[in-house]
Structures are given as structure tokens and as C-alpha cells.
Amino acid sequence: MAAPRGGYFGKILEIDLSKQTAKTRLLTDEECRKYIGGAGMGANLITSKYKAGHDPLAEDSYIFIGVGPLNGTYCVSTRTSFVNMSPYTGLLSHAEVGAHFGNEIKWAGWDGILITGRSKKPVYLFIKDDKVQFRDAKNVWGKDTEEADELMKQEVGDLYARTAVIGPAGENEVPIACVIIERFRAAARTSTGAVMGNKKLKGIAVRGTKAVPVADNKKFYPAAVAAKKLAVEKEAWQGIKRWGTTGLLELKHWVSGSLITKNFQTTWYPDIEYIGAEEANRRFWKRHVACNHCPVHCMKYGVIREGKHAGLIAEGPEYETGGLLGSNLGLSDFAGMMALIEACDAYGLDAISTGGILGFTTECIEKGVLKPADLDGIKPQWGEADPYYELIKKMAYKDGKAGKLLSMGVKKMSEKIGKGSDAWAVHVKGKEIAAHDPRGDKGRAYSYAMGTCGGDHHEGTNPATIARWAMLNSMVMCSFVAGYPLAKETPGVFTAMLNPLCGWNMSDDEYWTTAKRIITLERCFQVREGISAKDDVLPKRLTTEKLPAGPKKDAVFTAEDTKKIHDETYSYFGWDKNGIPTDQTLKTLGIEYLIDDVREARKKL
Amino acid sequence: MEKEQKKIPDVMQAETTRRGFLKGAAAAAGGAVALAAVGPAVPKVAKAAEPAENPMYRYLFAERQNCTGCRACEYACSVYHYGVVRPSVAKVHVYKHKSVVDVPVICWHCDDAPCIAACPTTPLAIQKDPKTNGIILNEKICLGAKCLKCVEACPALFIRVNPDTGQPLMCDLCGGDPECVKACLAQSGNPQGPCLMANKLGFGVNQAYRNVTPEEAGEDLLELLFYPNKTGERR
Ligand code: SF4
Ligand code: SF4
Ligand code: SF4
Questions:
Q1: B122 to chain A, minimum CA–CA distance in Å?
Q2: Closest CA of chain A from B100, distance in Å
Q3: Which chain B residues touch A160 with a CB distance below 8 Å?
Q4: Strands, E, within B98-169: which ranges?
């Protein structure tokens, strides 16, 4: 039970909001090596604490905010992972997010923060190295994420602190509420905002002054320099550097045929020229912004020039936000689209789910199964930004009929509305999917259907990348630097850093076993909650309606396609035909503690 | 400009790597705890001799609107001086203003050096290296937390305090070959080009840049780049 030698401080900060206490939980080297950090560490902490059917909003529910061994070291582009059981889907979910928040946690001397309990009054935390303050949030509660970020920094008297906050959507426990990091980065898709709102935790400000221990700096530093050099030299990131992910809007329309359009009716959207990267560059962007030690600076900030939102500073459009809140809503009004994106950031709403819900609602109106009267008189219409803006505001506050209905999300809305609306209800495991139509880009189906969280676009495009991404999410590194550009160098480039950093001798085999352990562990949680092969599927529209136009005209996600992704994934990870990890697999991976739970669940599935 | 860029070596060159890590290897071996005990490394004299004939690096300059806020400069500075990544002891630091703009806060190596003028000790605890123009701190003489007159005197609010020693973090220009400049160049390649530069002799000592606090510089950048709509209802 040795303490870690490097890469970790060997400490997790345990916060109990009910008792307003902060404690230290020590980590062993074995635990670190088995689950790495971030998503993997969080999955283990939470899975081992919960029994099947845990209420994700119970007072004793957990949020884990994790970093990995590489955070805070010379390694490029490290991030933060938020892990919790999502009250939206009832499943274990993790969100990785950029900016500098995670590295400040690390420099403060922590490998993660595990939050539980529920405060009586709204609070926020200020963590400065070993010191933790529970601060009265009376001035910050009710504020949007922009104001909350600034106010918290002012109140704690440290403008160099970095923040994670929820907006009004989180305070109102809207199930699609996210956490906003430093004003423009979203940890979304996990409902963490709603859980924080339920715990009356407005946010966290953190500042660290320490250095991460390194077991063998003589070897580690050159390896980290080499990894950075490799990533920088790859051409893969040049496009992202120049155009952010925005450039993909045009690409996925013209080339991949996977740009979602009007609630997945097509992927052919010539109007993309009015809302894509070139337009943004010509009329909106003002600066490139990078996360920690990242040479890619994929974030682009700009200011709206005209119309009623003139003067509004916003970030994007990114591929997902521009897809979901642009082409998905049939918009060609750039300023209007940016205002919607900014509103999601400001209110703390998951922009992907928000776009999915608005698209679904519009089609309900189009097909006559919803009337404007059901939406407080608002009539959403493809291409009209204003009604969407009103609806976003209502969702954030669960205001009126529209706010209450829309904040339920596509799955529950379609169950409530009925009238065949499930034909165009696009979600996986109860969560709206991202901006890549898997009919045009079949690899995405792995991420949507086979990934841990359901409906996410960022969990790999085949079984091997699911494994790769699991490691990135646990080392908490960015895929634009460590994923796509370093694909061929994986895992050598990472073990070359991890081993001297942590004092390990991890082989390639162990690297992949660790990846499989993390994915299988997460799967066990979901299986316990009733997930099996039947749920690893894409929605009806994508499996029955052919794409009507564009480079992938007539493509559809067939039953054979579904069978293929099931067979490949289940066998790669050692799960049975029903997608349930076998006893043998759990033993091999060293997570025997879940065998009983999984056996129990298997009986019902 | 082209000439200047060529002269700035790639930050990832083997030589830099070795130098950077060798310096702090001893301190880093035992991790953070050992680091605190060892304290800052003494500026290297060995290397300082070379750039002496080369007047290239006498001042730093920050093209503020080009900064992406990546903090590679903080990384490089702390690695060079202490052998580990530790932004809290980096001399250069990046202030994010209202989470919209980033202001790299640097030492301008002022000819009138108000920091040195304010230093009460004899001999002076902070002095300019006549060869490099970098400011060298003599830790034995510096009164540290009891004094910090230099911190008050710097119009740029550049000087921060070392959390371990209580002494000011002065920019020594790395013995004449600024690490932050090389790191920024390696990071940049953005359409605007790098933010940190050396040998910006300018006209005088960039006083208009120096005489603003990081917050004021942030407000200026915000105005310059985003001209926010101060009166309109934003949302
Ligand atoms: S006053 Fe400030 S900017 Fe000028 S030389 Fe001293 S530390 Fe540098
Ligand atoms: S010139 Fe050297 S000492 Fe000065 S801020 Fe840059 S890296 Fe640090
Ligand atoms: S390295 Fe350059 S771009 Fe990056 S934060 Fe420093 S000054 Fe800004």
C-alpha cells in the first residue's frame, strides 16, 4: 500500500457539503496505476460507493472532479474530468473539459475533488493549496456563468484563480445543465450542473502554488518535450489551430455528409457558408485562445457586430455548437446563432442537448403534434433565431409550459407527446446526440451507441479508439493533441512519460489492459442500471430513413451495421453477446468486486 | 524580423532541454517538498558570458493582442529556473482578464528601474546585469517579506513574491537567452504570430506599456479587440 512516487500527490480532497467539512483521502500507488485518474478514477470511486438504483440526486450522491498524473507537469494540453451519475440518463457519465481549472487543482496539491452532501444555503468553494473555504454564495446565486466567474474571483480576492460554475439552469436543476469553466468551456452531457444545483453548490474557485512531484525528472522531462514536439509537428492539428473545430462545419457538409441538419432530416446544408468558419473568420473572430500549455488554441472568441445582440462576446461556433444550434435549426443568421450559443454558455445549458431539443420541438410544430399554445405562444421555426432564444431562456428557468416541457429532454417529451413523435426523437439512452450524423459518418456510431455515456460524440470510432479515448480521459489529455495526432505513437509516447513520472514500468500490454479495465468498469455500472445490447442502438430515424441528399445520399445505418458494432466491441472488451462483461473478464481485469453485482443484473437482462 | 526569428532557437532543441532540466534536476528529484527546501537555483554565470557580445536580448516585449493564454511562458520560466513546472514561481505570469483576454505580465527591464531605485539595502539586493540587462536578485541581501519595496514600486505590477522564500521574483532574462520567448514562439504559429519577443529596443523603454497594471491592460485589450456594447441590454 505504498504512496505514489510521482505524478500524483496521493491525495483526494473530500468535500461534504452537508457537514461543510473538507477531508483528505489518501491514494495508494496501486489504485493510481489501476485507474490512472480523471474518468477512470472517478468511475471506480463512484461505482464502488453505489449500489444498483442509486438516486443520482440523493444527498449522498457524488461528483468527482478529477485530474490525471500528467496534469500540471510539462506534458501538453491536460484537462479536467467531471464524473457523476447523471440524473438525466440514470447512467454513469463523464465530461472532459479544457482551460486551466484542472491544472490549478493539481498545483493546489490534489489529484481530484470528491464532493458529496447537500448544503442548506447556496455556497461556493475556494481552494487555495491546502486551505478550503466554504463561502456564502448569496451574491453569486442567480447570476449567469459570466457574472459568477468574475464575482467569485473578486470575492475571494484572487484574480488569478480559475473557476467552475453553474448558471441559472443548474440552480433550477434543469437536467441538461452543465458546468462552465472559466466562462466559455463547458463540462456538459453529464448533468453535473443539475447535481451541483441540487447540492446548492454554485461553483469552485481554485488556485495552486505547488509543483507536481516527479519520480525521475531526468527521463520524464525529455519525454514530455518529445511528446509535445511530436504533437506540434503533426499536420493534423494545423487545421484545428487555424480554424478551430468550426472548420469541420463546412467539411462535414461538403465531404463527410454528416453535418446534422433540421433535426437529422438531412446532412446537406449549403447555407453553411453563412454560419461556418470562413464567415466567422471574416466577421466575428477576434482572438485564438488556448488551454494549459496547448499549442493548438482551438478556441476562438469574437464579438457580435450587428443586430440586437451587437457587442456580445461569445465563443465559437465550435463544430458541435454550430451544428446543433446552427444547421440543426436551419439557421443562416450568424449573429442569431452566436447569440443562442452564448445563451447556453451563460445560462449553463448543455448546447448539444439544447439544440437537439429545439430541433425536435420544431419538427413537432411542423408536423402539427405540438401547437404554439403548448409553448406559451412561441412558434419555433427553422431559420428563425428569436423564438429559439426565447425557448432557451425558458428552459434555463423551467419557465412556463414551454420551459417545463422542453427541459424534460427529447426522450421524455416524445413519450409525453406521443402521436408517433418517436419517429423523429433522436437520442441514445435518453440523451440527445451530437452533430455528427452516423449515417454519413458510421464510425461515430461506436461513440454514440457503444460509448459509456450514451449519445456522446467523443468516445471513439472503433473498439480500439474507445480504449484509447478511455486512457486519454483518465490521463485527462486533449484528443486534439494526444488523440488524433498521436494515434500512431500510442501507447509508447504516453508510457514514456508515465513511467518516469510515476516510477512505473507500465508495458504496452498493461496500458491496453488499463483501458479495458476502465471501459469495462464503467460498463458494469451501466449494466447494474439495466443497460444491455438492447440499449446500444441508434434511434429509429437513423436506422430507417435514408439520407435524402449530399455526398452520402441514400446512406442509412442498417441492422448489419448495428450488429457489426456490437460484435466488434463486445468481443474486444470481453463482454458476452448481450454486452455484459463476463466473470472471466472481470477477473482478468482485476475488478472482481463487481462480479456479484453483474451476475445479479444479468438475471434481469 | 526574419533575422530575429532565426536567431531564436527552437525551444525543443536538445540543448535547451538539457540545460533546462539539468539545472533543476537536483531540486526536482525529491519532488515538491525537496524543491521548497532547496529554494531557487542561483542564476548561472557560465552561460551568461556568451550573449554578452550579442546585444539581442536586452528587453522583453509583449505583443499583448497575440497572446493565447497558453502559459507556456510560465512553464518554460519555472522549468529553467527551478527544474519543474510551477507557475507560482515563474517570473512571467499570464493574467486572464474577465475570462476574455489574456495579459502576459512581463518585466520591461526599465532603464529607470523603479524597483531598483526603491530597494533600501546597501549593496543593492537587486541589480541589473550590465551584460544582459536582466535583473539579478541577491538572496542573501534581500530583506524579503519584511520589505518588498520593489514590489510596490513596479508600475507594471510585474513582481510577485516567491511563496517559499518571501522574496521577489525578478526576471534575470535567463542569462541573456529568454526561455519564455522561445516557448512562446514554439507555441504560436497562430495567424498573429508570437506574443513574447526579445530585443524590442523600441523607443525608450516601452513606458506606455509598462505604466499600466495587468487589469488596466486587460481593459484596454477588451476595448481594443471586442469593443463591448456598454449600454445595450446583453441578454
Ligand atoms: S520596475 Fe518592474 S518592469 Fe521595471 S525593471 Fe523593475 S520589475 Fe521590471
Ligand atoms: S526572460 Fe527568463 S526569467 Fe524573465 S520571464 Fe522570461 S523566462 Fe522568466
Ligand atoms: S507563451 Fe505566449 S501565447 Fe502563451 S501565454 Fe505566454 S505570452 Fe501568451
A1: 32
A2: 8
A3: 93, 95-96
A4: 101-105, 126-128, 135-137
Residue ranges with strand state E in A374-509 = 427-428, 431-432
Helices (H), A192-235: 192-198, 217-233
Residue A110 has pLDDT above 80, yes or no: yes
A299, containing H or E segment: strand A299-303
Choosing among A212, A293, A300, which should be mutated to test the B contact, i.e. which has the most B CBs within 10 A? A293
H-helix or E-strand containing A6? none
Domain that holds residue B90: 56-221
A314 and A271 in one domain?
A: yes
**Nearest CB partner across the interface for A217, out of B29, B69, B95:** B29
Residue B80 has pLDDT above 60, yes or no: yes
Residue whose entry in the numeric block shows the C-alpha cell 539545472:
B23
- pLDDT tens digits, one per residue of A330-367: 999 999 999 999 999 999 999 999 999 999 999 999 99
CATH number at residue B84: 3.30.70.20
Residue A327, domain member (yes or no): yes
Does the CB of B207 have a partner CB in chain A at under 8 Å?
Answer: no
For residue A497, pLDDT over 50 is answered with yes
Question: A311 versus B50: which is more confidently predicted?
Answer: A311
Domain check: are A406 and A459 in the same one? no
Last residue of a domain, one of A375, A398, A432: A432
Range in A180-184, A239-243, A288-292 the model is least confident about: A239-243
Cβ-nearest to B71 among A232, A288, A293: A293
Query: A25 in helix, strand or coil?
Result: strand
Give the separation between CA B96 and CA A159, rounded to whole angstroms. Answer: 8
Cα–chain-centroid distance for residue A181?
12
pLDDT digits (tens, 9 = 90+) for A300-324: 999 998 888 988 999 989 999 999 9
Indicate the burial class of B129 (C-beta count within 10 angstroms; 0-12, 13-18, 19 or more): middle
CATH number at residue A167: 3.60.9.10
Identify the residues whose C-beta falls under 6 Å from ligand 2: B 60, 76-77, 80, 91-92, 171-174, 178-180
Q: Kindly tell me if the per-residue pLDDT of A325 is higher than 80.
A: yes
Q: Which three cell numbers stand for residue A370?
A: 405540438
pLDDT in tens, A59-73: 999 999 999 999 999
Give contacts of B70 with chain A, Cβ < 8 Å: 290-295, 297
**For cell 445560462, what's the residue?**
A347
Rounded to two decimals, the ipTM of the complex is 0.93
Determine, yes or no, domain membership for A558.
yes
Number of H helices and E strands in chain A, helices first, is: 25, 17
